[in-house]
Design a protein that fits this description.
By secondary structure, this protein is an alpha+beta fold. It folds into 4 domains: 8-98, Uridine Diphospho-n-acetylenolpyruvylglucosamine Reductase, domain 2; 114-223, Uridine Diphospho-n-acetylenolpyruvylglucosamine Reductase, domain 3 (2-Layer Sandwich), CATH 3.30.465; 227-334, Alpha-Beta Plaits (2-Layer Sandwich); 341-437, Alpha-Beta Plaits. The chain has 17 helices and 16 strands. It has helices at residues 8-11, 13-22, 31-34, 58-70, 123-132, 149-155, 162-165, 168-171, 200-204, 238-251, 263-273, 298-306, 320-331, 333-338, 356-368, 400-411, 436-449, and strands spanning 27-28, 51-53, 75-78, 95-98, 114-118, 135-137, 172-178, 184-186, 213-223, 227-235, 255-262, 285-293, 313-317, 345-350, 375-381, 386-392. Strands 13-10-12-11-15-16-14 form a 7-stranded antiparallel beta sheet, with helices on both faces. Strand 15 and strand 16 (386-392) form a beta hairpin. The two termini are 32 Å apart.
Length: 463
């Protein structure tokens, strides 16, 4: 609702046009109403929107985009605003197109094992919807209550189940999306085999809103496991954690999650959120593993762990409350880290699995070389080589520590973005992972679909 004190047309003709499309209640211009859309979750990036518009469906979204084209306005799509790299908030007066009202969920196709979901459906709601039909959605992450289908497709999100199901890319069977000229592509048939031309849904997945606004998606589902058991395994180093992962991968059938946390991270979570420490004695590194199956996998997991002399201690949780307590130690990291000092530097990187111990050892060293007072907290996904390097202390605008870690990652043959995207945070470092020919090819795709640079300007490319 516009609360500027005068009719929308008097303030901005585009706002008036958008109000005609979606209704006054769904065009926000007052600062008190737009504020929640203008700062990202980390608090490191913020800006002002020309307005926030909330279309009800794909057709309205297309008309909204065409109105923005007519008024030569930049457009930024936003889902749950849980991004961590500044790519989902306005920077220069863009029109923010919120997908928050696109919450339709079709019945689960139990034959195909698929479902069509609106871009504004939260990951938690999708999980509940799939579970009611006996299925599971393969992507899960701590921000599940706020993160949306559209946002996770835009960033090709990973999460904690990649080792079992793959990232968001592996779940997307098709999309419906509005392109920068206001046209609509719709591929929601869910065909497993379809080799007619370019795979446009795959192209839009991970494009960070620079090529189109996903409004609906056809998603792959998986049979819901009947049994689930979690265990927290204490080891002496990241190298030993990798050894445990390698052994468990060979010993158990359905390894669903393998998460790495450190003593310092556990202490931070306990300090911030309360609760109890998992072991009487502190251990440098812990591995949180979860195993699923048609039959109870507890005995198989216990037998596999018993054969691993590097495991110093173990806490096993088979019932839901006990599993939740263990998972809280992992999922509480993000909130606990953000509660300490200024906005942290949250670096999301990946390396080849054999290089993971070296990354974990050297990342704190390269940070300390620049700032001896900085506090580094590591956690991540062992199964896919994805480590979250959280740096507490340096000024949020001081990117020296970011560059040092990214250069280390490039040296180790890794990626500066494993699952959070590039956004604006990593724009200056894209060359560490993509050579000139690669960047030029991506630029040509952007220019072909969005010649005016209208969609999410300043993300992925230095406009």
């Amino acid at each position: 609702m516009s609360t500027t004190g005068s009719p929308p047309a008097a303030a901005d003709p585009l706002v008036a046009a958008l109000s005609d499309i979606v209704g006054d209640d769904h065009v926000l211009t007052d600062a008190a109403l737009t504020a929640a859309y203008e700062t990202d979750w980390t608090r490191r990036w913020s800006g002002r929107a020309r307005c926030v518009v909330r279309p009800a469906d794909t057709d309205q979204t297309a008309v909204v985009v065409r109105a923005c084209v007519e008024h030569d306005a930049a457009v930024l799509a936003q889902g749950g605003n849980t991004g961590l790299v500044g790519g989902g908030v306005p920077r220069g007066g863009e029109v923010v197109v919120s997908t928050g009202r696109l919450t339709g969920l079709d019945p689960v196709d139990t034959v195909a094992g698929q479902v069509t979901a609106g871009a504004g459906v939260t990951i938690a709601a999708l999980h509940d919807h799939a579970a009611a039909a006996g299925f599971a959605y393969g992507v899960d992450l701590g921000a599940r209550d706020s993160a949306t289908v559209g946002g996770t497709i835009a960033t090709a999100a990973g999460g904690v189940r990649v080792v079992r199901y793959g990232s968001t890319r592996a779940q997307v069977m098709g999309v419906e999306a509005v392109l920068p000229d206001g046209s609509v592509i719709s591929r929601l048939d869910g065909l497993v085999k379809d080799n007619v031309g370019y795979d446009l849904p795959a192209l839009l997945t991970g494009s960070e809103g620079t090529l189109g606004i996903v409004t609906r998606a056809r998603l792959r589902l998986h049979p819901r496991p009947a049994h689930r058991v979690a265990a927290l395994l204490a080891v002496g180093s990241v190298a030993e954690a990798l050894e445990v992962f390698t052994a468990l991968r060979a010993a158990v059938d359905e390894l669903a999650a393998v998460e790495l946390i450190t003593h310092e991270g556990i202490e931070l979570v306990v300090e911030h959120a309360g609760g109890t420490r998992p072991f009487d004695e502190p251990h440098p590194v812990c591995l949180l593993v979860e195993v699923t199956g048609r039959d109870d996998p507890t005995d198989a997991l216990a037998a596999a762990v018993a054969d691993l002399p590097v495991v110093r201690d173990a806490a096993v949780a088979a019932d839901p409350p006990a599993r939740a307590r263990l998972w809280r130690l992992r999922e509480g990291h993000t909130e606990a880290i953000s509660a300490v000092g200024p906005p942290p530097h949250k670096l999301d990187v990946s390396v080849p699995l054999p290089a993971l111990p070296e990354l974990a050892a050297r990342a704190p060293e390269v940070v300390a070389a620049l700032d001896t007072t900085a506090r580094v907290v590591l956690f991540g996904h062992v199964g896919d080589g994805n480590l979250h390097v959280n740096i507490i202390g340096p000024n949020p605008d001081d990117d020296r520590v970011d560059r040092a870690v990214f250069e280390l990652v490039a040296e180790l043959g890794g990626s500066i973005s494993a699952e959070h995207g590039i956004g604006v945070h990593k724009l200056a470092y894209v060359g560490l992972g993509r050579d000139a020919a690669d960047r030029a090819a991506m630029r040509r795709i952007k220019d072909a679909l969005d010649p005016d640079g209208r969609f999410n300007p300043g993300v992925l490319f230095e406009d």
